[in-house]
Amino acid sequence: MHELILHHYDASPFAEKARLMLGFKQLSWRSVEIPRIMPKPDLTALTGGYRKTPVLQVGADIYCDTALIARRLEAEKATPALLPEGQEFNTSLLAQWADSVLFQHAVALVFQPQSIAVRMGRLPAAAQQAFIADRSALFSGGSASRVPLEQAKHNWPALMGRLQQQLQREDGDFLFGEPSLADFSVAHCLWFLRGTPVTAPLVDDYPEVSAWLARVLGFGHGSFSEMSSEQALAVAREATPAALPEEEFIEPNGLQVGQSVTIAAVDYGVDPVQGELLFAGREELILRREDERAGVLHVHFPRLGFRIEAR
């Protein structure tokens, strides 16, 4: 049985989502710190070019995107459930909305000049410029549209008002009563805003939301220990990828097993990953690729939010 290895960095909101899910599941894991900006040579040796944070590694299987990481953690430990029985549709749908719409509002608010001055004020000017250039490249070429700051400020009271109303009316302490993927998907956006006194009031001014966020963050990050990126590459190189899922191959556009394809995110961070198509299921796509340092790998992507094309 291979260890769970999370490739991430502390300040990443989506990494915080993954860390909280690991804590909720009370799982043990290894922590590999990756650079905040490109290049990320050890990470992309595993993924084939996918650069977003975080990435979950289990032996020679590499899981991209927190939506799919959540499903892999469900397979690792069924209870407590991120997708509670009978609420799978609601929790997945709200999580998808939070990871896109709510997150883009949070990005606009966090990256306003006053907030950035606090977050990055201690960094040298060259480091600040490099970070801004990296994030501009990250959002280039995809379908995600940046929310103007004025519009994010305009929309925020409605978004928080609806969230607060849901919490007031739902039985239990979480968005759908019991904790679920929806809670962690909303929480990481608000955790991001909590990062400076400039944006923290956008959360703290809503008492029910603030109390709920404290409950979600209270799950913690589980039990983890540090691992170097070189050690993680060695784990992949020495491992054999897991057996493919037992599910009918579903590829509506006629692609076949064994075909050379590329898979890429459609919203941002659209760097394509090339490999041999091994599996296409309702939720998951799997490529086989080989790397000089990491060996033979199976790289997993969610179907939603990604495109697949023949080479």
Instruction: Flag low-confidence runs.
Output: none
What proportion of the residues is helical, as a percent range?
A: 40-55%
What CATH architecture of the largest domain would you give?
3-Layer(aba) Sandwich
Q: Which structural class should the secondary elements be placed in?
A: alpha/beta
How far apart the termini lie comes to 34 Å
The radius of gyration computed from the alpha-carbon positions, rounded to a whole number of angstroms, is: 19 Å
Average pLDDT value? Answer: 95
Number of strands: 10
Give a brief rundown of this model.
The protein is an alpha/beta fold.
Q: How would the blueprint of this fold be written?
A:
Blueprint: E1 4-8, H1 13-25, E2 28-33, H2 41-47, E3 55-58, E4 61-64, H3 66-76, H4 88-110, H5 113-120, H6 125-138, H7 149-169, H8 181-193, H9 201-204, H10 207-217, E5 223-226, H11 229-238, E6 260-265, E7 273-280, E8 284-291, E9 295-302, E10 306-310
Parallel strand pairs: 1-2, 2-5, 4-9
Antiparallel strand pairs: 1-3, 3-4, 6-7, 6-10, 7-8, 8-9
